[in-house]
Amino acid sequence: MESDNRIGCFLRARREQVRPEDVGIQISSPPTRRRVPGLRREELAMLSGVSADYYVRLEQGRDQHPSAQVLDALARALQLDEDATLHLHELAAPAPRRRRARARTERVRPGMLRLLDSWPQTPALIIGRRMDVLAANAVASALNPICVVGMNIVRATFLDPAVRELYMDFDKNAADTVASLRASVGSDLDDPQLTELVGELSLKSEDFR
């Protein structure tokens, strides 16, 4: 992901998921070859009531603070749900000036490690803000292959086929996992390791996208 153009990356990803026929755009018969999946830029601009030139500037990051009315129009055209619409508004909000973010190392206090080990019959683990497993006791690791120190729960959920087989309802578990990641990181989107994780999963997992 382009860390300085989050709104453009989001719009492009969601635009590619909307089929023209789902929003009332007629496809010629026989259909002409489309170079991109989903909606074209000019089609989304037309549906949103903005000029194609303005939408291009928005997606390319040359205008990163559109009005709330424009964002709502884009959300309607992209058929975003309430959570995704709120996320779009948050991406467009001016961010406070801050120093360049550094990767943060998360550590577990020795007392917490001793506490986990004192529960030999109760699975327990400690998860970091990016959903990394920071600590796990032996019974947790034996019950679930995700519960291993160094494992990232989000990455394993979407990229490890063995993990997918653990859940009767994978779609619900996947949605819950992403919701937990969103809640954990909050509005702090400048974490380099978080950006790397989201970028990797966006490229490798259609379900995550």
Mind sketching the topology for me?
Blueprint: H1 6-15, H2 41-48, H3 52-59, H4 68-77, H5 82-92, H6 110-117, E1 125-127, E2 133-136, H7 138-143, H8 153-159, H9 161-164, H10 170-185, H11 192-204
Antiparallel strand pairs: 1-2
Helix pairs in contact: 2-3, 2-4, 4-5, 8-10
What does this structure look like?
- This protein is mostly helical and 209 residues long.
- Helices cover 48% and strands 3% of the residues.
- The chain has eleven helices and two strands, in the order ααααααββααααα.
- The chain has helices at residues 6-15, 41-48, 52-59, 68-77, 82-92, 110-117, 138-143, 153-159, 161-164, 170-185, 192-204; strands spanning 125-127, 133-136.
- Strands 1-2 form a two-stranded antiparallel ribbon.
- Strand 1 (125-127) and strand 2 form a beta hairpin.
- Helix 2 (41-48) crosses helix 3 (52-59), helix 4 (68-77) packs antiparallel against helix 5 and helix 8 (153-159) packs antiparallel against helix 10 (170-185).
- The longest helix is centred in the C-terminal third of the chain and has 16 residues, at 170-185.
- It is elongated and about 65 Å long.
- The model is unreliable at 97-101 (pLDDT under 50).
